[in-house]
Amino acid sequence: MSNIPFVMALLLAVAMIAAALVAVRATATVGAVLAAGLVSLFASVMFLLLAAPDVAMTEAAIGSGLTTFLFFFVMGRIRREGGGND
Amino acid sequence: MIRKFASVVLLLILGYAFYSLVAGFVPDGELNRSAAYYAENTARETGAQNIVTAIIVTYRGLDTLGEVTVLFLTAAIVAQVLSHSRAPAGTRGSGFLPAGELLETGTRLLVPLILLFGVYVFVNGHLTPGGGFQGGAILASAMLLLLLADPMRRFSHRLIAKVESISGLTYVALGVMGLVLAGGFLDNRILPLGQFGALFSAGAIPLIYSLIGLKVGAEFSSMLESLEETEDR
At CA B169, angle to CA B185 and CA B86, rounded to 5? Predict the structure, then answer.
């Protein structure tokens, strides 16, 4: 059993938990959205390590791509129409 | 106090559930029966190099049709809910912020590449990882980039609806053709299987997955566009 993928998976798991904590605890909404996207990005690399490239592509395209942009999209709208205050 | 206690107890129960999942995990020594069947017979029966695609499009094709239908329903409901608050055509909205030079120039460079990559992903779905859903999402992210760079940009709803419905209808028609010409609904052997590993191989799988890609891309794009066009006041 090779050791390098195991260490990488462990590091990824720790990074995912750290990013999730940042997403929950962050006071700035932009930072929280970015951290949530980061969780998805790490998850997609994790799927790749677990030999599921199809799932990894879906996670990267929808989880970290479209969802993150959708959050920014909606935040932009709220800022535009809510009188400019954060 | 009681609430905090309750949440700690819930966390402990959740932690125990996950711990027992991990502690009781025994890796399988061999493939289970259906997985062994797929691993053994996919290349011979469907001619697809990517087993996942063969399962999604052929063996479990009906489920995929259901998934696409669910996505279609979602897009239709989003469009219907948001159509009540659509901004009148030609208005400048309520003060769009300018996107900035960097985003506009980057968009001009990136959008063709992203579109090309999305098409590549779903055309090669039977050879490499990825396929219709992933490629469609990539196409939609190119549309999203266009909308971010220029919020006033409008795509033709009629064109998107046409792409969506034509690819959906052709998908179902191909499935029915499988019923008539080959072994069953959505059977891919209505076209010759071709040489294993070639671009035009695996029967109808590349065709069906391209249609799914176009359909998914059109559905996501119409959702994004409905979101962009709404006006709250």
Answer: 140
State if pTM tops 0.90.
no
Over 80: is that where the pLDDT of B208 sits?
yes
The maximal CA–CA distance of chain B, rounded, in angstroms, is: 69
Angstroms from B220 CA to nearest CA on chain A:
9
Residue with tokens 């720790």: A14
Which sequence spans correspond to the domains of chain B? Answer: 37-86+104-229
List Cα–Cα distances, A34 to A38, A57, A82, B176, in angstroms: 6, 19, 22, 45
Q: What span, in angstroms and rounded, lies between the C-alpha atoms of B183 and B186?
A: 9
Give the amino acid at A66. L
Considering only the beta carbons, identify the residue of A65, A74, A81 that sits closest to B141: A65
Residue B115 and residue B143 in contact, taking contact as beta carbons nearer than 8 Å: no
Closest of B123, B125, B119 to residue B138, by C-alpha? B119
Q: What is the pLDDT of residues B84-100, one digit of tens each?
A: 776 665 554 445 566 78
Work out the number of other CB atoms within 10 angstroms of the CB of residue B220: 25
Partners of A69 on chain B (C-beta within 8 Å) are: 141, 144, 148
Q: Are B203 and B46 in contact (CB under 8 A)?
A: yes
Nearest-by-CA chain B residue for A60:
B134
Does the beta-carbon distance from B144 to A57 stay under 8 Å? no
Residue A40 has pLDDT above 60, yes or no: yes
- Asked if A61 has any chain B CB less than 8 Å from its own CB, the reply is yes
Residues of chain B contacting A48 with CB distance shorter than 8 Å: none
Q: Compute the distance between CA of residue A74 and CA of residue B144 in angstroms, rounded to an integer.
A: 12
Identify the CA nearest to B27 among candidates A4, A48, A1, A11.
A1
Mean of per-residue pLDDT scores for chain B: 81
